[in-house]
Amino acid sequence: MKTNKAYINCFDSICCAGQSSEELFTTICEKKETITLNNHYVKDNIVAIGQINTQVPFEGLLVNTCQNVLENSNLKDFSNTLLVIGSSVGGMAQTEKIFFQDKSYKNIDYKHHPIDAIAHKLKKYFKFYDDISFSTACTSSANALGYAKEVINKGIYENVLVVGVDSLSYTTVCGFHALSVLSSKPCTPFEKNREGMNVSEGIAVLLVQNKKSKHSVEICGVGYSSDAHHMTQPHPQGLGAKQAMENAINDAQVDKNLIGYINAHGTGTMANDTSELNAIEALFIQNKPYVSSTKSFTGHTLGAAGAIEAIIACLAIAKNIIPPSKDIVNIENENVAYSNEPISKELNYVLSNSFAFGGNNTSLLFGRCNEN
Q1: Which residues are catalytic?
Q2: Is 195 contained in some domain?
Q3: In this predicted model, what pLDDT tens digit does every residue of 63-109 receive, in sequence order?
Q4: Each residue of 115-172: pLDDT tens digit?
Q5: What is the CATH number of the domain that holds 141?
Q6: Residue 1 domain-assigned?
Q7: Does residue 2 form part of some domain?
Q8: Residue 137 class from Cβ within 10 Å (0-12 exposed, 13-18 middle, 19+ buried)?
Q9: In a domain, 45, yes or no
Protein backbone atom coordinates (compact mmCIF):
# COMPACT_ATOMS: atom_id res chain seq x y z
CA MET A 1 0.00 0.00 0.00
CA LYS A 2 1.42 3.36 -1.05
CA THR A 3 1.87 5.91 1.72
CA ASN A 4 1.60 9.59 0.82
CA LYS A 5 4.20 11.96 2.21
CA ALA A 6 3.21 15.04 4.19
CA TYR A 7 4.75 18.36 3.16
CA ILE A 8 4.57 21.75 4.86
CA ASN A 9 4.14 24.12 1.91
CA CYS A 10 3.00 27.45 3.41
CA PHE A 11 3.09 28.94 6.87
CA ASP A 12 2.89 32.16 8.86
CA SER A 13 2.87 33.16 12.50
CA ILE A 14 2.57 36.01 14.95
CA CYS A 15 3.84 36.19 18.52
CA CYS A 16 5.77 38.57 20.78
CA ALA A 17 8.95 37.84 18.77
CA GLY A 18 7.57 38.80 15.39
CA GLN A 19 4.55 39.87 13.36
CA SER A 20 5.49 37.28 10.71
CA SER A 21 7.52 34.08 10.52
CA GLU A 22 10.44 35.82 8.80
CA GLU A 23 10.50 38.52 11.47
CA LEU A 24 10.32 35.81 14.14
CA PHE A 25 13.39 34.00 12.79
CA THR A 26 15.33 37.26 12.39
CA THR A 27 14.47 38.28 15.95
CA ILE A 28 15.78 34.95 17.25
CA CYS A 29 19.01 35.06 15.23
CA GLU A 30 19.66 38.67 16.29
CA LYS A 31 18.83 37.75 19.91
CA LYS A 32 16.49 40.69 20.41
CA GLU A 33 14.58 41.41 23.62
CA THR A 34 10.96 40.31 23.27
CA ILE A 35 9.60 39.48 26.74
CA THR A 36 8.06 42.25 28.85
CA LEU A 37 7.44 42.67 32.58
CA ASN A 38 3.82 42.81 33.69
CA ASN A 39 2.00 43.46 36.98
CA HIS A 40 -1.48 43.13 35.49
CA TYR A 41 -2.18 39.41 35.62
CA VAL A 42 -0.93 38.29 39.04
CA LYS A 43 -1.92 40.44 42.02
CA ASP A 44 1.05 42.03 43.81
CA ASN A 45 3.51 40.20 41.56
CA ILE A 46 5.57 41.14 38.55
CA VAL A 47 5.88 38.38 35.98
CA ALA A 48 7.51 38.32 32.57
CA ILE A 49 5.15 37.51 29.70
CA GLY A 50 5.18 37.40 25.92
CA GLN A 51 2.50 39.74 24.60
CA ILE A 52 1.81 40.55 20.95
CA ASN A 53 2.31 44.28 20.38
CA THR A 54 -0.67 45.23 18.22
CA GLN A 55 -3.99 47.03 18.41
CA VAL A 56 -5.73 44.38 16.30
CA PRO A 57 -8.04 42.10 18.36
CA PHE A 58 -6.70 38.57 18.80
CA GLU A 59 -9.50 37.04 16.75
CA GLY A 60 -8.64 39.41 13.91
CA LEU A 61 -4.98 38.35 14.09
CA LEU A 62 -6.06 34.72 13.83
CA VAL A 63 -8.18 35.31 10.73
CA ASN A 64 -5.48 37.46 9.12
CA THR A 65 -2.77 34.84 9.69
CA CYS A 66 -4.93 32.10 8.17
CA GLN A 67 -5.74 34.41 5.27
CA ASN A 68 -2.03 35.07 4.62
CA VAL A 69 -1.26 31.36 4.40
CA LEU A 70 -4.24 30.46 2.24
CA GLU A 71 -3.63 33.34 -0.18
CA ASN A 72 -0.07 32.09 -0.69
CA SER A 73 -1.21 28.51 -1.26
CA ASN A 74 -2.18 26.69 -4.45
CA LEU A 75 -5.78 26.35 -3.26
CA LYS A 76 -8.59 28.21 -4.99
CA ASP A 77 -11.15 27.16 -2.44
CA PHE A 78 -10.99 25.19 0.79
CA SER A 79 -13.91 22.83 0.35
CA ASN A 80 -11.57 19.81 0.36
CA THR A 81 -9.35 21.08 3.20
CA LEU A 82 -9.40 19.77 6.76
CA LEU A 83 -8.91 22.33 9.54
CA VAL A 84 -7.02 21.07 12.60
CA ILE A 85 -6.77 23.29 15.67
CA GLY A 86 -4.33 22.90 18.53
CA SER A 87 -5.07 25.05 21.59
CA SER A 88 -5.07 24.86 25.36
CA VAL A 89 -6.85 28.15 26.13
CA GLY A 90 -9.63 28.25 23.54
CA GLY A 91 -12.08 31.07 24.24
CA MET A 92 -11.06 31.44 27.88
CA ALA A 93 -9.79 35.01 27.49
CA GLN A 94 -13.13 36.14 26.03
CA THR A 95 -15.00 34.48 28.89
CA GLU A 96 -12.76 36.20 31.43
CA LYS A 97 -13.25 39.58 29.77
CA ILE A 98 -17.03 39.36 30.05
CA PHE A 99 -16.88 38.04 33.62
CA PHE A 100 -14.55 40.79 34.88
CA GLN A 101 -16.49 43.46 33.02
CA ASP A 102 -19.94 42.40 34.23
CA LYS A 103 -18.90 40.87 37.58
CA SER A 104 -21.25 38.08 36.56
CA TYR A 105 -21.31 34.92 34.47
CA LYS A 106 -24.80 35.56 33.08
CA ASN A 107 -23.73 37.19 29.81
CA ILE A 108 -21.10 34.57 29.01
CA ASP A 109 -21.93 32.55 25.91
CA TYR A 110 -20.71 29.04 26.66
CA LYS A 111 -20.49 28.30 22.93
CA HIS A 112 -17.55 30.73 22.61
CA HIS A 113 -15.56 29.21 25.47
CA PRO A 114 -14.39 25.70 24.43
CA ILE A 115 -11.44 24.77 22.22
CA ASP A 116 -13.60 23.83 19.23
CA ALA A 117 -15.20 27.29 19.18
CA ILE A 118 -12.07 28.47 17.35
CA ALA A 119 -12.49 25.80 14.68
CA HIS A 120 -16.18 26.52 14.22
CA LYS A 121 -15.51 30.22 13.59
CA LEU A 122 -12.70 29.58 11.11
CA LYS A 123 -14.63 26.84 9.33
CA LYS A 124 -17.57 29.16 8.87
CA TYR A 125 -15.34 32.00 7.66
CA PHE A 126 -13.23 30.01 5.16
CA LYS A 127 -15.71 27.19 4.41
CA PHE A 128 -13.38 24.31 5.19
CA TYR A 129 -14.60 20.79 4.53
CA ASP A 130 -14.40 19.72 8.17
CA ASP A 131 -12.57 20.46 11.40
CA ILE A 132 -11.10 18.75 14.45
CA SER A 133 -9.58 20.25 17.59
CA PHE A 134 -6.80 19.04 19.90
CA SER A 135 -6.37 20.23 23.45
CA THR A 136 -3.52 18.36 25.12
CA ALA A 137 -1.95 21.28 26.97
CA CYS A 138 1.49 22.21 25.61
CA THR A 139 1.52 19.46 22.95
CA SER A 140 -1.77 20.58 21.38
CA SER A 141 -0.53 21.93 18.05
CA ALA A 142 2.31 19.39 17.84
CA ASN A 143 -0.35 16.70 18.06
CA ALA A 144 -2.39 18.59 15.46
CA LEU A 145 0.58 18.40 13.09
CA GLY A 146 1.01 14.72 13.88
CA TYR A 147 -2.63 14.13 13.02
CA ALA A 148 -2.24 16.08 9.77
CA LYS A 149 0.66 13.83 8.79
CA GLU A 150 -1.36 10.72 9.59
CA VAL A 151 -4.45 11.60 7.53
CA ILE A 152 -2.28 12.66 4.58
CA ASN A 153 -0.14 9.52 4.80
CA LYS A 154 -3.31 7.41 4.66
CA GLY A 155 -4.78 9.36 1.75
CA ILE A 156 -7.78 10.57 3.73
CA TYR A 157 -7.04 14.23 2.93
CA GLU A 158 -4.80 16.03 0.46
CA ASN A 159 -4.84 19.40 2.24
CA VAL A 160 -4.78 20.06 5.98
CA LEU A 161 -4.56 23.50 7.56
CA VAL A 162 -3.02 23.25 11.03
CA VAL A 163 -3.56 26.18 13.40
CA GLY A 164 -1.83 26.48 16.76
CA VAL A 165 -3.37 29.26 18.79
CA ASP A 166 -3.41 30.50 22.37
CA SER A 167 -4.04 33.94 23.83
CA LEU A 168 -3.01 35.27 27.23
CA SER A 169 -5.51 34.68 29.99
CA TYR A 170 -5.67 35.19 33.75
CA THR A 171 -6.45 31.52 34.24
CA THR A 172 -3.25 30.30 32.61
CA VAL A 173 -0.90 32.96 33.98
CA CYS A 174 -2.26 32.66 37.52
CA GLY A 175 -2.36 28.88 37.20
CA PHE A 176 1.35 28.67 36.41
CA HIS A 177 2.02 31.22 39.16
CA ALA A 178 0.26 28.89 41.59
CA LEU A 179 2.66 26.13 40.51
CA SER A 180 5.59 28.48 41.34
CA VAL A 181 7.14 28.10 37.89
CA LEU A 182 6.85 31.66 36.53
CA SER A 183 9.87 33.89 36.07
CA SER A 184 9.98 37.58 36.98
CA LYS A 185 12.41 38.12 34.07
CA PRO A 186 12.81 36.78 30.52
CA CYS A 187 13.27 33.03 30.79
CA THR A 188 16.69 31.38 30.33
CA PRO A 189 16.14 27.72 29.42
CA PHE A 190 19.06 25.38 30.21
CA GLU A 191 20.84 28.04 32.29
CA LYS A 192 21.79 26.43 35.60
CA ASN A 193 20.43 29.41 37.56
CA ARG A 194 17.16 29.69 35.64
CA GLU A 195 14.12 31.06 37.42
CA GLY A 196 11.13 29.71 35.47
CA MET A 197 8.98 30.15 32.38
CA ASN A 198 7.23 33.02 30.58
CA VAL A 199 3.59 32.52 29.60
CA SER A 200 2.99 33.97 26.13
CA GLU A 201 0.48 34.19 23.34
CA GLY A 202 0.85 33.25 19.71
CA ILE A 203 -0.65 32.01 16.46
CA ALA A 204 0.94 29.69 13.92
CA VAL A 205 -0.69 28.43 10.71
CA LEU A 206 0.77 25.72 8.48
CA LEU A 207 -0.64 24.21 5.30
CA VAL A 208 0.25 20.51 5.07
CA GLN A 209 -0.29 18.78 1.71
CA ASN A 210 0.43 15.50 -0.06
CA LYS A 211 2.36 17.17 -2.90
CA LYS A 212 5.51 19.17 -2.43
CA SER A 213 6.20 22.64 -3.75
CA LYS A 214 9.42 24.53 -4.38
CA HIS A 215 10.13 25.31 -0.72
CA SER A 216 8.54 22.32 1.01
CA VAL A 217 9.72 20.76 4.25
CA GLU A 218 8.60 17.21 4.94
CA ILE A 219 7.09 16.01 8.21
CA CYS A 220 9.18 12.84 8.22
CA GLY A 221 8.30 11.38 11.57
CA VAL A 222 6.06 11.81 14.59
CA GLY A 223 6.71 10.25 17.97
CA TYR A 224 4.35 10.07 20.92
CA SER A 225 4.78 8.79 24.46
CA SER A 226 3.13 9.05 27.84
CA ASP A 227 5.30 8.48 30.90
CA ALA A 228 2.50 9.41 33.35
CA HIS A 229 5.14 10.14 35.97
CA HIS A 230 3.38 13.09 37.61
CA MET A 231 0.47 15.41 36.99
CA THR A 232 2.66 18.43 36.19
CA GLN A 233 6.29 17.27 36.23
CA PRO A 234 8.14 15.09 33.72
CA HIS A 235 10.11 11.99 34.63
CA PRO A 236 13.44 13.28 36.04
CA GLN A 237 15.48 11.09 33.69
CA GLY A 238 13.35 12.09 30.73
CA LEU A 239 12.15 8.57 29.96
CA GLY A 240 9.00 9.77 28.19
CA ALA A 241 10.86 12.49 26.30
CA LYS A 242 13.49 10.01 25.12
CA GLN A 243 10.81 7.56 24.00
CA ALA A 244 8.96 10.26 22.02
CA MET A 245 12.16 11.25 20.21
CA GLU A 246 13.02 7.62 19.48
CA ASN A 247 9.52 7.01 18.15
CA ALA A 248 9.75 10.00 15.80
CA ILE A 249 13.13 8.82 14.49
CA ASN A 250 11.83 5.27 14.00
CA ASP A 251 8.69 6.56 12.28
CA ALA A 252 10.87 8.50 9.83
CA GLN A 253 13.28 5.58 9.40
CA VAL A 254 16.16 8.01 9.65
CA ASP A 255 19.60 7.53 11.18
CA LYS A 256 19.53 9.64 14.35
CA ASN A 257 23.12 10.73 13.68
CA LEU A 258 21.84 12.73 10.69
CA ILE A 259 19.82 15.05 12.93
CA GLY A 260 21.65 18.37 13.04
CA TYR A 261 19.48 20.39 15.41
CA ILE A 262 16.91 19.92 18.16
CA ASN A 263 14.46 22.70 18.91
CA ALA A 264 13.92 21.74 22.52
CA HIS A 265 10.75 22.11 24.55
CA GLY A 266 12.98 24.04 26.97
CA THR A 267 10.51 26.02 29.06
CA GLY A 268 13.00 27.37 31.60
CA THR A 269 11.55 25.52 34.60
CA MET A 270 13.88 23.45 36.78
CA ALA A 271 12.08 20.14 36.31
CA ASN A 272 11.44 20.34 32.57
CA ASP A 273 14.89 21.41 31.42
CA THR A 274 16.78 18.85 33.51
CA SER A 275 14.51 16.07 32.30
CA GLU A 276 14.82 17.01 28.63
CA LEU A 277 18.61 17.39 28.80
CA ASN A 278 18.88 13.96 30.39
CA ALA A 279 16.77 12.50 27.57
CA ILE A 280 18.85 14.16 24.84
CA GLU A 281 22.11 13.09 26.47
CA ALA A 282 20.92 9.48 26.76
CA LEU A 283 19.68 9.27 23.16
CA PHE A 284 22.46 11.08 21.29
CA ILE A 285 25.73 9.52 22.42
CA GLN A 286 27.92 9.80 19.31
CA ASN A 287 27.00 12.62 16.94
CA LYS A 288 25.46 15.25 19.19
CA PRO A 289 23.02 17.62 17.47
CA TYR A 290 22.97 21.25 18.48
CA VAL A 291 20.23 22.12 20.96
CA SER A 292 18.48 25.41 21.69
CA SER A 293 15.20 26.62 23.13
CA THR A 294 13.56 29.40 21.15
CA LYS A 295 11.16 29.94 24.06
CA SER A 296 13.80 32.35 25.36
CA PHE A 297 12.42 34.64 22.59
CA THR A 298 8.81 33.55 22.08
CA GLY A 299 8.02 32.65 25.67
CA HIS A 300 5.86 29.59 26.17
CA THR A 301 2.85 29.95 23.87
CA LEU A 302 1.31 26.80 25.42
CA GLY A 303 -0.95 25.05 22.88
CA ALA A 304 0.53 27.10 20.01
CA ALA A 305 4.15 26.25 20.86
CA GLY A 306 4.43 23.08 18.76
CA ALA A 307 3.23 24.85 15.62
CA ILE A 308 5.37 27.96 16.16
CA GLU A 309 8.45 25.82 16.74
CA ALA A 310 7.60 23.71 13.67
CA ILE A 311 7.82 26.92 11.63
CA ILE A 312 11.17 27.74 13.26
CA ALA A 313 12.37 24.24 12.33
CA CYS A 314 11.25 24.73 8.72
CA LEU A 315 13.10 28.05 8.49
CA ALA A 316 16.21 26.56 10.09
CA ILE A 317 16.26 23.92 7.33
CA ALA A 318 15.50 26.45 4.58
CA LYS A 319 18.19 28.88 5.71
CA ASN A 320 20.73 26.33 7.04
CA ILE A 321 20.92 28.28 10.28
CA ILE A 322 20.70 26.82 13.76
CA PRO A 323 18.82 29.33 15.92
CA PRO A 324 20.34 30.20 19.29
CA SER A 325 19.23 30.12 22.88
CA LYS A 326 19.70 33.29 24.89
CA ASP A 327 21.54 34.14 28.10
CA ILE A 328 23.05 30.76 28.94
CA VAL A 329 26.03 31.61 31.17
CA ASN A 330 26.28 28.54 33.39
CA ILE A 331 25.63 25.34 31.47
CA GLU A 332 23.73 22.71 33.41
CA ASN A 333 24.63 19.64 31.32
CA GLU A 334 27.97 19.78 29.52
CA ASN A 335 27.21 16.58 27.61
CA VAL A 336 24.74 18.45 25.38
CA ALA A 337 25.81 20.70 22.47
CA TYR A 338 24.14 24.08 22.91
CA SER A 339 23.84 26.81 20.31
CA ASN A 340 24.24 30.13 22.09
CA GLU A 341 24.74 31.99 18.81
CA PRO A 342 23.24 31.38 15.36
CA ILE A 343 25.31 28.71 13.58
CA SER A 344 25.52 28.26 9.82
CA LYS A 345 25.26 24.54 9.14
CA GLU A 346 23.64 22.41 6.45
CA LEU A 347 20.56 20.91 8.06
CA ASN A 348 18.81 17.92 6.56
CA TYR A 349 16.84 16.86 9.63
CA VAL A 350 15.55 18.84 12.60
CA LEU A 351 13.78 17.45 15.65
CA SER A 352 11.24 19.58 17.55
CA ASN A 353 10.05 18.60 21.03
CA SER A 354 6.78 19.41 22.78
CA PHE A 355 6.08 18.04 26.25
CA ALA A 356 2.99 18.57 28.40
CA PHE A 357 1.39 17.92 31.75
CA GLY A 358 0.67 14.31 32.62
CA GLY A 359 3.71 13.04 30.72
CA ASN A 360 2.11 13.77 27.34
CA ASN A 361 5.08 13.93 24.97
CA THR A 362 5.33 14.60 21.21
CA SER A 363 8.38 14.89 18.96
CA LEU A 364 8.25 15.94 15.32
CA LEU A 365 11.04 15.20 12.85
CA PHE A 366 11.31 17.54 9.86
CA GLY A 367 13.40 16.92 6.77
CA ARG A 368 14.75 18.71 3.73
CA CYS A 369 13.06 17.76 0.46
CA ASN A 370 15.12 16.61 -2.52
CA GLU A 371 14.96 18.83 -5.58
CA ASN A 372 13.64 16.07 -7.88
Answers
A1: 138, 265, 300
A2: yes
A3: 999 999 999 998 998 989 999 999 998 877 788 787 778 777 877 77
A4: 889 999 999 999 999 999 999 999 999 999 999 999 999 999 999 999 999 999 999 9
A5: 3.40.47.10
A6: no
A7: no
A8: middle
A9: yes
